[in-house]
Amino acid sequence: MSTRVERLFEQALSLPGLSRAALADRLVESLGARTHGPLTQGAFLTRLGIEVRAARLKTGKDADAARAIDTALMRLIGSGRAEMGELFKVIAFSHPTLRTLPGFES
Questions:
Q1: pLDDT of residue 12
Q2: pTM exceeds cut of 0.70
Q3: Choosing a second label site near 18 at 20 to 30 A (CA), which of 44, 55, 68, 73?
Q4: How far, in Å, are 12, 16, 38, 52 from residue 87 at the CA level?
């Protein structure tokens, strides 16, 4: 991590009550970066095509293997208590001239 970024984090973390969102906004603003997101993990992975990938992985698999793939898919993109799809968020930063990053399209 660059010294400049380290200093920004140190300064930001020393401010009482500063949220992660505020920290991200400060960092992005100071570096001139572009923010993508935040999105839920489920939305992000779905936009990247995880369901299509899971379907391909199930091709030629027996019923137990196909069920295991379905279970893993739901754990990653589902919204229940045991799933990560709504629990985790995804955010990315890029150079301001780059187009919207994959997975962050509306």
A1: 63
A2: yes
A3: 44
A4: 25, 25, 12, 22
Q: How far apart are CA 12 and CA 21, in angstroms?
A: 11
**8 A C-beta contact, residue 36 and residue 106:** no
Q: How far apart are CA 79 and CA 75, in angstroms?
A: 8
Q: 33, 95 in Cβ contact below 8 A?
A: yes
pLDDT of 26 reads 73
Predicted confidence at residue 101, as pLDDT, reads 96
Distance CA 10, CA 43 (A): 32
- Write down how long the chain is: 106
The residues, ordered by sequence, that sit 6+ positions from 24 with a Cβ below 8 Å of its Cβ are: 35, 91, 93
Identify residue 61 by its one-letter amino acid code.
K
What residue segments make up the domains of the chain, in order of their start?
A: 1-32, 37-90
- What DSSP state is assigned to residue 82? T
Give the residue ranges of the chain where pLDDT is below 70: 1-2, 5, 8-9, 11-18, 20
